[in-house]
Amino acid sequence: MKILLPLLLLAALAACGVDGEPERPAATDPAPVVTANIGYGESGLRANAGAGFTRGPVTVYVGI
Prior knowledge:
19% of the residues lie in helices and 45% in strands. By secondary structure, it is an alpha+beta fold. Strands 1-2-3 form a 3-stranded antiparallel β-sheet, with no helix packed on it. The chain is elongated. The chain starts with a helix and ends with a strand.
């Protein structure tokens, strides 16, 4: 048991892909965009939210 547990932990560590420092995402990876707004006007209280991503000059956004 004293040998089996360290071997299992070592195998689990090797299987998860830990091999050094994490890398920063490339500049070409899509950047996430999340917004939430609450407003008050003559028609009452309004709320909206949305999420999407931006890649270069293109933005894809879905709002509710």
